[in-house]
Amino acid sequence: MSTTGARDQYVWSLMRKKWILVCSRGISPSGQLCLKGDPGPWIENNPASLLLVQCLELDFANNDVEGEIADSIRELSRLTHLYICFCTILKCLPNAITRLHNLKVLQVECCIKLEELPANISLLESLRHLSLSSCFRLNSVSSITGLHNLQKLDLRHCYNLTELPADLGDELLELFYIDIQGTAIKCLPGSITKLWNLRFLLLPWSFRLETLPYDLNESIVVAFADMHIRKTWNALRKEIAPLSFPLLGAEAAHNQCNCSYERIACPSIVFPWGYLQLKGDPGPWIHCHYDSHSLVRFLDLDLSCDTDHISESIGELAELTHLYIYNSSYLEHLPKKIAMLQKLELLSVQYCDVELPPDLNQLVSLRHLSLAANGVEPIIYGLEKLSNLETLNLQGSFNSLTELPINFDKLVSLRHLSLGYCEIKSLPVSITKLSNLTTLYLYECPSLKALLENSSFRRLKLKNCSIMTLPTGLCHLEILHFKDFCEEKTACDIQEQFLDHLINLETLSITCYRIKFLPSIARLRNLQELRLKDCFSLKELPANLDELIGLCILDISGTRIKSLPYSITKLNNLQCLILPKCFRLESLPSNMNSSVRVFVDNTDDTYYENLGYYDCLTSAKASTEGN
Predict the structure, then answer these.
(1) Would you tell me which CATH number, out of the four given (3.80.10.10, 3.40.50.620, 3.40.50.720, 3.30.230.10), belongs to the domain 9-210?
(2) pLDDT (tens digit, 9 = 90+) per residue, 229-258?
(3) Theoretical Cys-Cys bridge with 578: which of 141, 156, 185, 555, CB 3.0 to 4.6 Å?
(4) What is the pTM of this model?
């Protein structure tokens, strides 16, 4: 699309999202060329201008011609950026692009029939950024492992993609950013631990966190699709510590080095974790891979293909520790021989209206149970026999979960309880007898407005909840509001009476993009950590910060705060200060404690753009400009 004034001609750039000035041949002063469809005709008609093109945009939207890219594209030898979008019939990128040896950025978006990449894409030795977002049929990216200089990999919304190359971490040592949100990937290859430069890892909502290796680089920032959570792996693994993580210790490392033959014999298993993902009944796989039974630790069963049973042969997987079963409207019961899985530690049944086996209590190693279904309420009344259970996650569906059983106190070992998508109005009094219960996680519980004062838990996480009465004994509080949750309200400010009585609070974390004002928290004198990460509308902190005499960590990354109150200088115990990109470093008080470690958050602005924050607030550019 173009527009012409008296002397200037402008075209719309999808990549830059603005109008750009171009000359008569359609090239901008910076070497950008925006075309509709195949570049072949332009290349043929402008041979003298080929060396001027450094950035090429190909927009196939509303294009009447076939979505082909001429081999003559290789003649653009100085091309550094190539952007292809809305090409609805392209199944594979043309081999000709592998001749673009100066190409640094390749972005392919919304090419919905793209299934594969050129086998020799590794010839793009200069490539730093590869984006294949919303290429729904893409099923493999195995050829990317030859791109040794690749730093950023974006595979968002490639719904058909189920795995990353096993040798990803062996070959792509420069990777610092991986985005697999909206994919079907649920487990990463073991080589991920070798990516020492990896800084950002964005995961799909269905990813199995338990499969992440405990000894993954602890500084990696992990985020989840549609959940607006951004935490370092060091912080996240502490939060979900009850779950069993694979650890690359001596035994696992030995197995990783000696699993080459096993990987060839059974390529469907992700090594070294022993993760196996199957569609439908696992019976046929178990029958055909007898020699591989002992290799399977994690079994992920997608029953969305109208599966109505699970074979009793599942009991032969004697080494199984984690079992996930989900997406079946036909499955009525679990196999009886599931009770033979004596090493099973975690059982997750999601969106299957099934009956649990009566002898589930024979699973002596079972510590973690997750249930989500339309009819979850009748199921939970048989849980009192699971006296060894430590973690319980209950999700309703269509508000089917309205209450917990009165005898909930029978779960004497319970340490962590999660309740989601339910219409529970109050928790049973018996929950106060669970002396081992330390953590309560509530999400999407709109009818629950108050918690019992004498509850034993000390850690509370609230996601999209509006609970206003909290127990005084809380030590750790995290409040998370999604963008959609905030948009339903005229304001999303945390009220002072909601916080000021929590005198035992040691850590307070709030993530809410609409919050504009944080009231006085001066009474929270035991507070050691204050994290306001991604409170995108927050522009200032309370003036009386000096009342927080024990504060050690202050994290305001992802806010719009540009300066701090002078009272920051009186925080003698402050050790770590994490600032947003827009912060004016020159405004830091000169007499602030010199021992404070100051960090500036380097989260890419595209993270917030993908969340839609910039659609509702000022642009990133405006937010970083001085007043």
Answers:
(1) 3.80.10.10
(2) 788 898 888 877 666 555 444 344 444 444
(3) 555
(4) 0.85
